[in-house]
Amino acid sequence: MRYAVLSDIHSNLVALQAVLAELADAQIDRYLCLGDIVGYGARPNQCCDLIRELGAICVRGNHDEAAVDPAKAEWFTAPARACILWTREQLRSDNLAFLAELPALRVVDEAISMCHGSVSDPDLYTVTPDDAALSFAAMETPIAFFGHTHYAEWFVDNGDGQPPVEWPSPSGATWQLSPNARYLVNPGAVGQPRDGNELASYAIYDSDACEMVIGRVAYDIAKSATQMQEAGLPEAMYARLWLGV
Ligand code: ZN
Fold first, then answer.
1. Which of 61, 96, 102, 228 is deepest in the core (most CB within 10 A)?
2. Distance from the alpha carbon of residue 161 to the mean position of ligand 1, in angstroms
3. Tens digit of pLDDT for each residue in 18-68?
4. What is the CATH number of the domain that holds 131?
5. CB-neighbour burial class of residue 19 (10 A; exposed 0-12, middle 13-18, buried 19+)
């Protein structure tokens, strides 16, 4: 089975289309989406529509949750809150219902856990090996995918009693998984990368070959930024797209 793993699309339709074009020839059997389909960007309905058309298996992100229930945006920064209130006004009722029904945690094919932030708590940011250890303690599968930080990276639990090992910025190379280890993988953000690399990010996992690759693809950032500007969204939210922060 070949899985494409997408996270943190954030209503960036141009980036999502670029990623899907890249995946078109990758013999993908199943699409997984780790949440934050909406928030920040200018095309929330179109991104929800595309994800639904793909039949992607999804979990909810904190922005998806806040679009449904604005009280959840209380802790957002002022620009992020402005984006989510705008998003809520834009979303059609069927897409709001779709987002409202997303679970926080999901196990796919009895082998893969999916969460937004951490298997132990969907709102937790997994940044350090100590954070990763919380997910490893909670997960009941050899592999879990997470997003939320917008950093492409992975953590490995080698099963030797030592703390998880962090592998930052792993884009490009194909990685052979060991049957003796457990893996916590962040595919990076499709729509708003923050790891210093402005390219849209995604992962492909081949469960038969036991291979993982994190891919990056260029997209028309100016087009996305113009769409956000025309929608009246905060400048800081599109200025950062060029910087990958
Ligand atoms: Zn996000």
1. 61
2. 31
3. 999 999 999 999 999 999 999 999 999 999 999 999 999 999 999 999 999
4. 3.60.21.10
5. buried
Count of domains observed in the chain: 1
Place of tokens 């897409």: 95
What's the pTM? Answer: 0.96
> What contacts 8, CB < 8 A, 6 or more positions away?
34, 35, 36, 61, 147, 148, 150, 188, 189, 190, 191, 192
Ligand 1 mean position to 160 CA, how many Å? 32
CA of 8 to the centre of ligand 1 (A): 5
Q: How far is the CA of 67 from the centre of ligand 1 (A)?
A: 13
Range(s) of the domain holding residue 83: 2-242
Cβ-proximal residues to 134 (8 Å cutoff; 6+ apart), any chain: 118, 119, 120, 121, 124, 126
